[in-house]
Amino acid sequence: MKNKLVILLVALSVASVTVAQAQQHIKTNNDIGLYGGFTQFDITTDNFITTSGQGWIGGLAASVALPHKWYNVSYTIQIAQNSMGIMAKPNLTSAQEEVDFNMITAQVAFLVHLKVIQEYLTIDVGPMIQYTGDLEVENERQGSYIIENYTRVTAKDIYKISPFNINGAVGVSAGFPSFKLRGQYIYGFTNILNQLNDEKFAGETNTSKFKGNQSMFALTAMIIF
């Protein structure tokens, strides 16, 4: 996974330089930003009963400022560790309880920053490609718990999240040329649970298709060089 991230970062850098060279007859400013912060993550689905959880996020942004335009553009690469809860029970006759799950995501995005107050306040929007790690049970003791709404599907059975997803991101950035705060909402357009449909759960009575879309909110602070 680390090698994949390095390749993506190099690709972003090359793309940024290419844009700058293509517009060399126009004055532009290229910046690099480092940022980190917190996430609120959930999966919107009818299959599971979920609760959102908190995590962390960090990344790198390569920005191209276009003084002659009403927008700027940037390429970002970020890694996040997300958490969420899914209701399950030790056995079919037990009361349900929350099982905590963790998931690592790596995201690459192309963002357009619409200038509301020059570079001090912008609305950010753009597409995002995401690599998603397994959905891991935080407490191994709960791995055999039966997921609510099912009779045979356990917590450890639902680890196979679809590895590649396409998201949309929208947010707001505010601050100064060297420091910004950013709030961003990320929604998954693709079915993040789709790979579970390839699994066979012998004896399971619930045969409905697995379908879910990720929902993430990120609040970050960025230092710009």
How would you portray this structure in words?
- The chain is mainly β and 225 residues long.
- Helices cover 9% and strands 56% of the residues.
- The chain is built from one helix and ten strands.
- The chain has an eight-stranded antiparallel barrel with strand order 1-2-3-4-5-8-9-10.
- A hairpin with a 2-residue loop joins strand 8 and strand 9 (179-188).
- The radius of gyration is 20 Å and the shape is elongated.
Give a short synopsis of this structure.
The chain has 225 residues and is mainly beta. It has one helix spanning 2-22, and strands at 29-45, 50-65, 71-89, 97-117, 121-132, 136-137, 146-147, 164-176, 179-188, 212-224. It has an eight-stranded antiparallel β-barrel with strand order 1-2-3-4-5-8-9-10.
The total number of structural domains is 1
CATH class term: Mainly Beta
Rg calculated over all Cα atoms: 20 Å
Structural class: mainly beta
Order of strands, widest sheet:
1-2-3-4-5-8-9-10
Per CATH, which architecture?
Beta Barrel
Average residue pLDDT: 90
Main sheet characteristics: 8 strands, antiparallel, barrel
The helix content, as a percent range, equals under 10%
Question: If helices are DSSP runs of H or I spanning 4 or more residues, what is the number of helices?
Answer: 1
Low-pLDDT residue intervals, each spanning 5 or more residues: 5-24
Estimate what percentage of residues fall within beta strands.
Answer: over 45%
